[in-house]
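SAMPLE LOG
Freezer: B-3
Tube label: C17
Construct: single chain, 450 aa
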Amino acid sequence: MTQGSPQQTDAAAESGSEPLPPREKVKTFPTTPGVYLMKDAQGRVIYVGKAVNLRSRASSYFTSAAAVDRRTADLVPEIADLDCIETDSEVDALLLEARLIKDIQPRFNSELKDDKTFPYLQIVTGEDFPRVEFTRKPREKGVKLYGPFTSAKQLRGTIGVLQKIFRFRTCTLDIDEDDERWRWFRPCLLASIKQCTAPCNLRISKDEYREDIRRLRMFLDGGKARLLKELQKQMQEASRELKFEKAARLRDEIKALESLNLRGNLDEHVQPEVFYIDPKKGLKGLQRIFGLAEMPRVIEGVDIAHLQGGETVASLVQFIDGLPFKHGYKRYRIRTVEGVDDFASMREVVSRRFRRLQQEGEQFPDVFLVDGGKGQLNAAVSALKAIDITPPLIISLAKREEEIFVPGESEPKRLSRHAYALRLLQYVRDESHRFAQAYHHVLRRKSTFE
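STRUCTURE (predicted):
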């Protein structure tokens, strides 16, 4: 970052000429991103603002409209001088503005000092894998706060930009590095587009992830130049040690930091909308919605798939405490049904599954999820009645409208698309469908080979 107009003020003093009045001085400002500081007659900073174009933004305070606008009418008459600080990008300007306001506490930025409705960037430091959050209600303990910021939209955009560089998580999952079941968890879209290192799938160690968060904090604290030097050194060391994958990632991080020049496009960098599936919240939601005495622990989901030529297969997936348990997955080739008959196939699979559990003295799942509508659900319920087994909570999830059907209820349940309970059921349903299709493809390849 480089400071602009103070140098011009010094030059004017050395030449003996009068300092330029604010209206004229602002015309010498650069057209780059940065922060401007308004001062009163005593030289005190009374307002700090950011700009994509310093000259254009600061000049707007000296128009006839600004003199009568209720937002600037009180400020404008008190501006006796102003300075600017150039930055490399709009992101840098946004972060510098927040730091200066917090440190200087200018009188005309007073609403930001006390009003807790303004947004903050919050890093939850007490977790194995600290998450980065946008919040208007910051916690008092266990977090590192940055802000407040003047624009919620631009803060969201900034988080999206920084996530592409530092690849931190923004979800609300409670991830425990020592719990191996997380290795079976399916990461969200952000991992696929390389905006997150997927700690939810334990693809990165706790120490490596915390190193990424340390770099992020160094950047947020204004240490961009120091961070770039550190990354260059680490990249060279990794290359010497033949750790080429690490060196390549550091190279990409350096490039992204050096080319961080977004101008006025922060709104375009908001991360894609991803609905994170928090297992605990999803299970609590199921307990509440279905009136269960206890929070469910074991969920099983079943799906039917058809092979070309009429052969039918089925899959059963098992989730424990809201996470996939791959050792509990099962595959079935339908034996008693000829042709395509989803209802009959469902009856066979459900009957085989629960007979096996009963014979081996195993506990039934707390929730049994059928992929389909009322017809598939009725087929599953009739199969259990035929073998005289009292079913657990058995429900079906219809894909088109995401409706949940429950035995004995004529109308389906319709949950908010954002509900954790629905997202967890969708996860189980989609995983059973994926597993069925995988078996389908295995058999098809085998049939082709034969």
